[in-house]
Amino acid sequence: MSLTKLGSSLITTLLVVIVLTGCDEAVTETFFEEEVSFQTEDSSIAGTLAVPDGEGPFPAAIILVGSGPFDCNGDVDAAAIEAAKAAGVPVIAVSSTYRDIAYGLSEEGIITLRYDKRGIGNSTGEKGDYPQSSTRDLTAAIAFLKEHPSVDRERVALVGHSIGGLWALRAAAEDPEIAALCLMATPAQPFSEVIVEQIEGLLTLQGANETYIASVVSQQRALYDQIRSGALDLTTVPEPMRSELEFLTAIMDVAGADYAGEIDSPVLILQGDKDLFTVIPEEAQLLNDAFIAGGNEAVELIVFPDLDHMFRPTPGQPGLDLYYQDRGPIPSAVVETIVDWMVSTIG
User: Fold this and answer.
1) pTM
2) CATH code for the domain of 126
3) Residue 168: alpha-carbon gap to chain centroid
4) Is the dihedral of CA 187, 72, 15, 253 positive or negative?
5) Cis status of the peptide bond prior to 240, with omega within 30 of 0
6) What is the CA radius of gyration of the chain?
7) How many helices (H) and strands (E) in the chain?
8) Beta strand 180-184 pairing with 58-64
9) Which residues contact 322 (CB under 8 A, 6 or more apart)?
């Protein structure tokens, strides 16, 4: 197995294909959902806005998806699914995590906006998981939401999952008007170290011995040194490895803890204790400590037992094979925790 492919593919997505449901218009007894779009300097971003019944103004939350070709619901883009099927890649069954969170919040009087990353669904543009483009799109999303006549501009929160939590942290560090943050399985250390944790966790689960794991980690760190020193000329690397290395170069030194120290808003950190090869539980504690070290004491950390990176039930030993099993939607306890905290914080 290529070390570079192992490391960089893990940071983009451990879940390759998920059943698509899309972002459909819907009307419920408590909120109305509609398709919307907003512009950035180089792309058009498509999303879904859920507005509670009533006059408002309402508090609002933007839900940010994790890495990979996920749409605004948390399912994989249709084009990615077709490509995977053509390549004979098995389809992973996971329900719509971000849609479920949005519904839970909007049912309790909070406007929600969730959007397809650039290059996904009806959103245009490229490099949807890159730091600069992702935070630029989020800034546009915040501005778009604040212009809505039913939104209370002083009560706008962010809910970010995995790498989406990093973009939420970056935005909140730059914008003190962000009222609250909910961070789900979001790393604290530089992504280069998170990748090492991923490698160690995955190889351990595969039964590799300590000597082999140490060798793989050493070679991964050597790759970092080559990138940082400029010794590796990416123009000489063939695709798709070049794109993977370009993404690694862009993300490797991004650290959630660096932004945490700049944020004074209330924060809820959620983590599954069986998330052992994507964002290990210790990352959540490090993130919590970074907020406190920066003087923010309005931080709450909740670790859910027997839940993995996608916050799905994992009663036994975690493993990639579980992602190919339909384990149902995100547990109601997770959604209720987010909703209750948001209502008490910005409601």
Assistant:
1) 0.89
2) 3.40.50.1820
3) 9
4) negative
5) yes
6) 19
7) 11, 9
8) unpaired
9) 308, 312, 314
The answer as to whether 22 is a domain residue is yes
Domain residue limits at 342: 14-189+266-346
Angle, helices 163-174 vs 131-146, to 10°: value is 60
- Reference 272, options 282, 287, 264; nearest CA is 282
Is 202 inside any structural domain?
no
Tens of pLDDT, residues 85-107: 788 776 665 668 999 999 999 99
Instruction: Report the number of distinct structural domains present in the chain.
Output: 1
How far is CA 203 from its chain centroid? 23
* Ordered alpha helix ranges (H), the chain: 3-12, 78-86, 97-106, 131-146, 163-174, 191-205, 210-229, 241-251, 256-260, 281-293, 332-346
φ, ψ for residue 104, nearest 5 deg: -60, -40
Burial class (CB in 10 A: 0-12, 13-18, 19+), 200: buried
Q: Which amino acid is residue 308, in one-letter code?
A: D
Report how far apart the first and last C-alpha atoms of the chain are (Å, whole number).
49
241, HSE (Cβ side, Cα atoms, 13 Å): 12
Residues 144 and 148: their CA atoms lie apart, in Å, by: 7
CA 22 to chain centre: 18
DSSP code of 96? -
Instruction: Determine contact, residues 136/118, Cβ cutoff 8 Å.
Output: no
User: In whole angstroms, how far apart are CA 19 and each of 45, 115, 118?
Assistant: 22, 18, 20
User: Cα angle vertex 242, ends 240, 246, to 5°?
Assistant: 125
Residue indicated by tokens 């849609």: 99
Q: Which of 15-19, 65-69, 94-98, 187-191 has the highest mean pLDDT?
A: 187-191
What is the bridge-based pairing of β-strands 44-52 and 31-39? antiparallel
The model's pLDDT over 204-256, given as tens digits with 9 standing for 90+, comes to 988 999 999 999 999 999 999 999 999 999 999 999 999 999 999 999 999 99
Is 95 a domain residue? yes
Q: What is the DSSP letter of 331?
A: P
Map residue 22 onto helix, strand or coil: coil
User: In this structure, is residue 227 part of a structural domain?
Assistant: no
Q: Residue 2's CB: how many other CB atoms inside 10 A?
A: 10
